[in-house]
Structure formats: structure tokens, C-alpha cells
């Protein structure tokens, strides 16, 4: 197991290197630069600005500088938010996205798993149809409809929660639900599919024949295999969900990391784009590693591979 | 049997617990009438204000946009300050000032009780060092050109001279500061209101970095030192910037707000919902789609105020068919601006028949465009395109935004209907768009200009030959000369006449098509007092207070 993990960690290095290199050059290919503004800047000032951020150096020098700093863990200053470094911005906004992501994930797992499992157990019953229709709806209704709708009802209509912000515990409710619903819907469908497949297998029938109680069959035998597709799905999704969602963060005015992914690209904030992309990449790789470990634990067949 | 039932009942009670407890919590915390933020703010004199996007910085010598200015004007005070009603310059740190007979030398007498937020006195030396900082080339301040009216300021900023003593600033003693200008500049005092003219506390900046380079991290909470009516109390990126009443400000007795919380809400839809939920006193803007809704349901909350900005189209005059003045004129004459303002924009915008918003510092251009489809058709025929025949298909470029698309579509239809011209709409992402604009890689393209100060000069000097914001390729030596003359003319009335001539040339040549003058459309609670409609949308916070209606 240790060798497996160590191998994966070593494998991470070239992947990150390639991602950093590609992103570095790709952001610079986009037209316009960090200091292109509606009001023109005098050319001398523009030159000084570029010099300060090292943008006047030849591209390969910039690249080497960046990679050198990256090795030291320094992601550089943000071009747009001049007083903050990319490290500071990521470390101040990531905890918010992480917190929101955890709530959303909890909601998604509780709702999604229970709906999916119940639907599978009562296949073609009313419970199945209702929960799967809801799941379909959850997948189809985008967050930018769901979010404002929830605000309209619970924020503006009933006045129970704030329409935006990230201050009190109450402010966590609507964004977590909005984000959680979408994932709950996916999880429900995946869980149902996985469970159906397992429930039709011989070993389940044998267990039934031997008179094992159904709760035991479900929890002990079926779930382990039935949830494999969910676990596979969760890997990249967890990374996605805890790094923040641009739409949800914008709708609810949440100071999370997700907004930086999009605004950094719009601002041509080169260092911020690179910083967020690399951060995301590290998280995805880490989550996938955890998922692989969990899968091996869930599925003994994989242990020999 | 007995056992089964007990287990059942324990399950039931557990389910009751699972559902009941959250419901109870919800009931206890949620259903009771909560005090909204606005009500809390009214009680505590805390103003909640939407502020557009997250500020880039809080260093007045580095920032560039209006949303930062609104925060900075609470944190700093310049030599002069703004009157809350019409923004005319009133004494700020300078108690009074003398102007030399040739209007080139201003001597400011600073008040002795002006203090920085750390208790240090604000002295003439602070101003001198601040202006040295912003003009130092290595700082690369994007707004340093606002100081170029001062003798040798431009030369120093461009590195042509290195001795700052030769620049027209002098601290005669601790409380007397002299500024020498190149030319008599009638808008000099209004210019002083701009953030680039704010003083900064050099010792503090030096403590956290090189004051003549970017990247000094002195604007953090706890480090920040300003001289305005408020001090920085809290700054969480994309969340909040709170400023608290300063105990050291010289005019602190006039300041009635205890705190202002600026909410950097980027999405106008989110901001509007936040306002409606009672979390904001004032919004930065209001989505176009909500204006009618407010007009019907909350007319007392909807504010529409004139704003010193002009929305217009650039025409690339370097390439056919737009190198022909007649074609440009035909396009400009065939737009129904009134219908556009009343039916499409619907936010009280003024149709624009010239470049400078009417009434800017007492100036209204006498030459006005008009709508004249017959004349436009005649011009097109004269240029060789009768009824648009033989006219190439043109491109109308705008940056990707719903509001620009709607306007472009309307104008596209008007040109098609009136002139038989086919215009293709092209939208580009903001930075790509700016690049195309700068490289003259367009035919007709949308743009706008918000006045930096209240004077026609800010709208007209941009079109001089080679001007950074004259992104049309247009050049007219007589126009350049007039703008230069205006800068040298001492007599205010005569100076406005020079602008009349210049703008007449601009409207005859038409490298631009004026479309409308902006209004500032936003929502505001009735409790906000001491807040007056001003043309730059600046509202000095030291006069603002909250007073809920008694009934």
C-alpha cells in the first residue's frame, strides 16, 4: 500500500509540471494583458508596470523565474489585487469554499445516497419514480436558477435567511443546499444504478435464500459494491466542490476561491490563473488518490492489480 | 411482540427527534421577526453600501477605478474637499488658499489641527512627499497624469528631470504649501478632489516596503494610516471593507456615521436581492431589467441621477468606407436616440447629440447633431451608396454584455431601415475587445467615457492627435490647437468659447457617434440622509447619516 501511494505521489510531479508549463504559456497567448484598461495608460507607465512584474523579460526568463518561485511555494503577487499575493488570496478564500463544499457534500451524500438506495430497493415503485424525477430535476435545474429561487422564497419571501453574504451560520444554509442538490441528484442516480446491478447478482440471492435479514444484506453485502460508481464520481467531484463554484459564490456573494478561477482569467491576472489552476490540480490528484485507496478497500479484486 | 413495539416506539421517537429538533431550531431562530441589517445599521449609524467589485488596492496612488474612489474618499482628505450638494471644492486639509493674479500659483494654508489616524499632524511636507511618490516613475502610477498641470510634473514623471525641487511643489513651512502650474487651469481645484491628489503617510509606507515601488503592503488593517473622516477597520477580500469613524479627524464632530461597511458585490442581480432583503442601504447600481419593477413597486427607493458620462461609438476613420466624412455623418444622423433612451434603456438616460454632457461646468455645446434621415440618405447617395447600394457589410463591435447587445441591435435595425446598410454585430470578451480597439482592429465599436473631473476638457482633450483614448485614427490639427489654446486661456468665458469651436469640429468630422448620456440608476433606502444627487456620483460620507422615519 505504501509503495502504491509513494508511486502516485511521484507521478504527481511530472503532471503538475506539465500543467504549470501549459497554463503559463496559454494564459499569455490570450489577447490583452493584465494592464489593458479602458482608459489608456501612458506608454512609459505601461513599461514601468510591466518591468515591475517582470513582464518585460523574455518569455523563457519569465518562465524560469516563475518555476523557480513555484519550487519555493511562492505563487507570486496578484496582478489585479495589487496588495495581495496569490498565496494570501488562495489561503484566505479556500477555507470558505472548503467549508461550503463540506456542507454541500454532506447534503449531497445524505440526500443522494438515501434516495438512490431506496429507489433501487423499491424499483419501479412510487418512491423510485418520485425520487428519480426529483434527481432528474436536480440535474436539469442549473444553480443559477436554483439559487435565486431559494433566495426568493426563503430570503425575500419568508425572511428567514439573508439574501447574500457569509457572516452567520444561517448564511450557510441556502448556498449549501443549492450546491448540494446538484450533487445529490447525480449521486442518487449513480447509487440507484450501482445498487440495482448488485442486487441482481447471485451472491445477494444466495444471502436471501440463506435467510439473512434484508437490512444486513443491504448494509453488509450490497452497499459495498453498489456504491462503487458513486465513489468513482466523488473523486474529482470533491475536488471540484471544495474549490468553490463560481456561480454559487457569485449568487450568494461568498468570499470563496471559485470566483477567482473565472475572474482571474477575465482580468488576465496571470499569476492568479496559474495559482488557482495548480491548486486545483493538486487537489484533484489528491482526491483521486484517496478514491483509489477507497476503491481498493471496497473492491478486493483490485488489490492484486 | 412486546419487544418489537418498544423498538418501534424508540425508532419513532428517534425520527421525531431527527425531524423535530431541526424544526424547533428553525422555529426559534428563523420564524421570529429578525432585525434586518438595515435596521441594525439605522440604530447604530452604520451605513451598508454596495460597492461594485472588490477594490484592487486601497493605495490612492495605485488604484484606478471609481469603486475604489468611493472607499478612499472616506479614508483620505486632500487639500480641498467636496461640497455634498454639488461637489464644488470646499476647504479640506487646506483651510484657505490664495491664487496669484496670473492664476498659476496656488498657496494653500493648511489647518493646524489636521491629523493622521496615528495622531501625527498633517503637514505641507506630507503633501510634498506624497506628490513626489506618485510622480516617481518607478511607482508607475496610472493616474499620475492628473498631476501634469503642475510645472515640470510630467517631465519628472517621464524621467526627463530627476530633481524634484524643480517640480512646482513647495512646502514653505509646516502649514503652507505652494503649487505652481504650467498654465492657468480653471479646473485645478476640482482636480484636487481626485484620489491621485490625496496625501499618503510616507513613514508608514516605508515601514512595510519601498514607497517608490508597488507592493508595499501598508494598506492592511492595523497598518493603514489615513487622514480622512474614517479609518480602515476590516478588509476581507470579496466580502467586506469596513471603515470606522476616525477619532483624530479634525472635523470629527460633523461626522455622524459610526461606520460604513462597503460590500463588494460584483453581480448587480445579487446586489439587488441583497438590497431587497434589507441588507443594504444603498446599491451601486440596479440591473436594467429591474428598473421597471422598482418604478411600479418601490418608486421611493429607485434613484435616477444624472451622471457625467457619455456612451458613444468610435469609428475607425483610417479605412474605407469610413474615411469618408459623409458616411460617418449619415450613420450619426440616422439613429433615433430618443426612442433608444425611452424604449430600450428606460433609465432616464439623455439622448446625446454632442460629446460633452450638457451643463458640464456651465458648458453646453451649441452645435448639436439632429436626426435627419433624409439628409443621411442624401449624404450616402453623395458618397456613392444610394439607398445603401454598393455599401460593404460592416461590423459593429461591442464587449460582451447584454445592455450593449440590445443597443447595438437597435442601432443595427435603424441603419438597415434608414440607410439600407447591413451591420454585423460582433462581441468580444473585455480584454480582447480593448485590444481590438487599441489596434484599430474594428470598423465601428462601442465605448464610453466617464469624466474624471467636472470640466469639458475631460471629454474633449481625449481626441487630440495620438491621444491614448482617441482610438479612432482621427487627427485634426486645428482641433489639437484649440485644445492647447483652451489650456492657456485665462478668461473662463473665452475658454468655453474655445471648447465650443473644438467640439463643433468634432461634431462636423464625427470620428465618434454620440448615443446617450449616462444616468446613475440605483436603489436607496429612505433613511439615508445627507446624500444628494451629484454628477460624479460622489457623496462625501462625513455629511451622510441615517434617520429612520418616525412613523
Describe the structure.
The complex is a heterodimer of chains A (305) and B (551). Chain A is an all-alpha fold and 305 residues long. Chain A is built from 13 helices and no strands. By secondary structure, chain B is α+β, with helices and mostly antiparallel strands. Chain B is built from 17 helices and 18 strands. Chain B has helices at residues 2-31, 37-44, 66-75, 124-135, 153-157, 188-191, 202-207, 268-276, 291-297, 325-333, 337-345, 373-382, 402-419, 430-438, 457-460, 477-488, 492-509, and strands at residues 46-50, 80-82, 89-91, 94-99, 105-110, 169-173, 176-180, 230-236, 240-245, 259-263, 302-315, 350-351, 394-399, 423-428, 444-450, 512-523, 528-529, 545-546. In chain B, the strands form 5 sheets. In chain B, strands 12-16-11-15-13-14 form a 6-stranded mixed sheet, sandwiched between helices. Chain B has a 4-stranded mixed sheet with strand order 1-10-9-8. Chain B has a 4-stranded antiparallel sheet with strand order 4-5-7-6, with helices on one face. In chain B, a hairpin with a 3-residue loop joins strand 8 (230-236) and strand 9. In chain B, helix 10 packs antiparallel against helix 12 and helix 16 packs antiparallel against helix 17 (492-509). Chain B is globular, with a radius of gyration of 28 Å. The interface between A and B is large, with 53 and 59 residues.
**Helix fraction of chain B by DSSP (H/I, runs of at least 4):** 25-40%
Oligomer: heterodimer
Question: Radius of gyration of chain A from the CA trace?
Answer: 24 Å
**Largest beta sheet of chain A, briefly?**
none
Question: Structural class, from helix and strand content of chain A?
Answer: mainly alpha
Termini of chain B, distance in Å?
66 Å
Mean pLDDT of chain B: 89
> Biggest interface between protein chains, with counts per chain?
A-B, 53 and 59 residues
Helix content of chain A: over 70%
Principal-axes geometry of chain A comes out as flat
Determine the structural class of chain B based on helices, strands and strand pairing: alpha+beta
Question: Mean pLDDT of chain A, as a whole number?
Answer: 88
Amino acid at each position: 500500500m505504501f509503495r502504491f501511494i509513494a508511486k502516485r505521489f511521484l507521478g504527481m510531479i511530472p503532471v503538475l509540471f506539465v500543467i504549470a508549463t501549459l497554463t503559463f504559456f496559454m494564459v499569455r497567448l490570450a489577447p490583452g494583458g493584465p494592464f489593458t484598461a479602458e482608459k489608456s495608460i501612458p506608454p512609459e507607465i505601461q513599461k514601468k508596470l510591466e518591468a515591475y512584474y517582470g513582464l518585460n523579460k523574455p518569455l523563457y526568463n519569465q518562465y524560469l523565474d516563475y518555476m523557480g518561485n513555484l519550487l519555493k511555494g511562492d505563487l507570486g503577487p496578484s496582478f489585479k489585487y495589487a496588495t495581495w499575493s496569490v498565496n494570501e488570496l488562495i489561503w484566505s478564500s479556500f477555507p470558505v469554499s472548503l467549508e461550503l463544499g463540506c456542507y454541500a457534500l454532506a447534503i449531497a451524500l445524505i440526500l443522494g445516497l438515501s434516495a438512490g438506495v431506496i429507489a433501487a430497493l423499491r424499483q419501479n415503485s412510487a418512491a423510485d419514480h418520485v425520487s428519480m424525477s426529483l434527481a432528474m430535476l436536480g440535474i436539469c435545474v442549473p444553480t443559477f436558477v436554483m439559487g435565486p429561487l431559494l433566495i426568493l422564497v426563503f430570503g425575500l419571501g419568508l425572511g428567514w435567511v439573508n439574501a447574500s453574504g457569509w457572516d452567520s451560520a444561517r448564511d450557510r444554509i441556502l448556498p449549501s443546499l443549492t450546491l448540494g442538490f446538484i450533487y445529490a441528484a447525480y449521486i442518487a442516480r449513480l447509487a440507484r444504478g450501482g445498487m440495482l446491478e448488485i442486487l441482481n447478482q447471485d451472491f445477494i440471492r444466495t444471502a436471501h435464500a440463506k435467510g439473512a435479514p434484508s437490512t444486513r444484506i443491504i448494509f453488509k453485502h450490497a452497499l459495498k459494491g453498489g456504491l462503487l460508481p458513486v465513489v468513482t464520481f466523488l473523486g474529482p467531484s470533491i475536488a471540484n466542490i471544495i474549490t468553490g463554484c463560481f456561480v454559487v459564490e457569485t449568487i450568494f456573494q461568498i468570499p470563496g476561491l471559485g470566483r477567482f478561477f473565472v475572474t482571474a482569467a477575465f482580468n488576465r491576472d496571470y499569476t492568479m490563473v496559474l495559482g488557482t489552476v495548480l491548486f486545483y490540480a493538486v487537489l484533484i490528484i489528491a482526491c483521486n488518490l484517496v478514491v483509489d485507496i477507497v476503491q481498493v478497500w471496497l473492491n478486493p479484486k483490485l488489490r492484486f492489480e | 411482540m412486546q419487544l418489537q413495539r418498544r423498538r418501534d416506539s424508540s425508532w419513532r421517537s428517534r425520527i421525531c427527534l431527527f425531524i423535530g429538533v431541526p424544526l424547533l431550531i428553525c422555529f426559534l431562530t428563523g420564524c421570529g421577526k429578525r432585525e434586518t441589517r438595515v435596521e441594525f445599521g439605522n440604530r447604530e449609524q452604520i451605513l451598508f453600501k454596495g460597492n461594485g467589485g472588490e477594490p484592487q488596492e486601497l493605495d490612492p496612488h495605485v488604484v484606478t477605478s471609481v469603486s475604489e474612489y468611493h472607499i478612499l474618499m472616506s479614508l483620505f482628505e486632500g487639500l480641498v474637499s467636496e461640497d455634498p450638494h454639488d461637489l464644488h471644492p470646499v476647504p479640506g486639509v487646506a483651510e484657505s488658499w490664495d491664487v496669484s493674479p496670473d492664476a498659476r500659483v496656488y498657496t494653500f494654508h493648511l489647518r493646524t489641527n489636521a491629523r493622521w489616524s496615528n495622531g501625527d499632524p498633517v503637514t505641507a511636507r506630507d503633501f510634498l512627499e506624497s506628490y513626489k511618490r506618485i510622480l516617481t516613475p518607478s511607482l508607475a502610477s496610472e493616474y499620475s497624469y492628473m498631476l501634469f498641470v503642475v510645472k515640470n510634473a510630467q517631465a519628472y514623471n517621464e524621467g526627463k528631470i530627476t530633481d524634484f525641487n524643480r517640480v512646482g511643489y513647495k512646502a514653505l513651512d509646516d502649514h503652507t504649501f505652494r503649487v505652481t502650474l504650467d498654465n492657468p487651469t480653471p479646473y485645478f481645484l476640482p482636480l484636487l478632489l481626485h484620489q491621485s491628489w490625496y496625501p499618503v503617510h510616507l513613514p508608514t509606507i516605508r515601514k512595510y516596503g519601498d514607497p517608490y515601488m508597488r507592493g508595499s503592503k501598508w494598506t492592511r488593517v492595523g497598518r493603514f494610516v489615513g487622514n480622512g473622516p474614517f479609518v480602515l477597520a476590516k478588509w476581507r477580500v470579496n466580502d467586506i471593507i469596513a471603515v470606522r469613524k476616525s477619532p483624530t479627524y479634525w472635523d470629527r464632530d460633523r461626522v455622524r456615521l459610526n461606520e460604513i461597511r462597503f460590500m463588494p458585490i460584483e453581480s448587480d442581480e445579487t446586489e439587488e436581492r441583497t438590497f431587497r432583503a434589507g441588507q443594504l442601504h444603498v446599491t451601486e447600481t440596479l440591473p436594467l431589467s429591474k428598473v421597471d419593477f422598482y418604478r411600479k413597486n418601490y418608486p421611493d427607493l429607485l434613484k435616477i441621477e444624472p451622471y457625467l458620462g457619455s456612451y458613444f461609438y468610435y469609428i475607425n476613420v483610417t479605412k474605407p468606407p469610413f474615411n469618408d466624412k459623409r458616411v460617418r455623418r449619415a450613420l450619426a444622423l440616422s439613429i433615433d436616440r430618443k426612442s433608444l433612451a425611452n424604449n430600450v434603456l428606460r433609465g432616464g438616460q439623455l439622448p446625446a447629440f454632442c460629446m460633452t454632457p450638457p451643463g458640464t461646468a456651465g458648458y453646453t455645446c451649441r452645435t448639436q447633431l439632429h436626426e435627419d434621415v433624409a439628409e443621411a440618405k442624401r449624404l450616402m447617395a453623395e458618397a456613392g451608396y444610394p439607398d445603401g447600394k454598393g455599401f460593404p457589410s460592416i461590423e459593429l463591435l461591442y464587449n460582451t454584455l447584454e445592455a450593449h447587445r440590445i443597443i447595438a441591435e437597435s442601432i443595427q435595425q435603424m441603419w438597415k431601415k434608414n440607410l439600407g446598410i447591413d451591420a454585423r454585430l460582433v462581441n468580444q470578451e473585455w480584454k480582447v475587445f480593448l485590444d481590438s480597439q487599441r489596434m484599430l482592429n474594428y470598423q465601428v465599436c462601442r465605448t464610453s467615457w466617464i469624466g474624471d473631473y467636472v470640466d469639458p476638457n475631460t471629454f474633449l482633450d481625449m481626441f487630440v492627435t495620438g491621444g491614448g483614448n482617441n482610438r479612432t485614427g482621427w487627427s485634426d490639427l486645428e482641433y489639437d490647437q484649440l485644445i492647447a489654446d483652451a489650456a492657456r486661456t485665462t478668461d473662463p468665458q473665452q475658454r468655453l468659447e474655445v471648447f465650443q469651436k473644438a467640439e463643433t469640429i468634432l461634431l462636423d468630422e464625427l470620428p465618434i457617434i454620440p448615443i446617450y448620456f449616462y444616468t446613475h440608476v440605483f436603489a436607496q433606502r429612505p433613511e439615508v440622509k445627507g446624500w444628494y444627487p451629484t454628477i460624479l456620483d460622489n457623496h462625501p460620507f462625513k455629511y451622510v447619516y441615517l434617520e429612520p422615519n418616525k412613523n
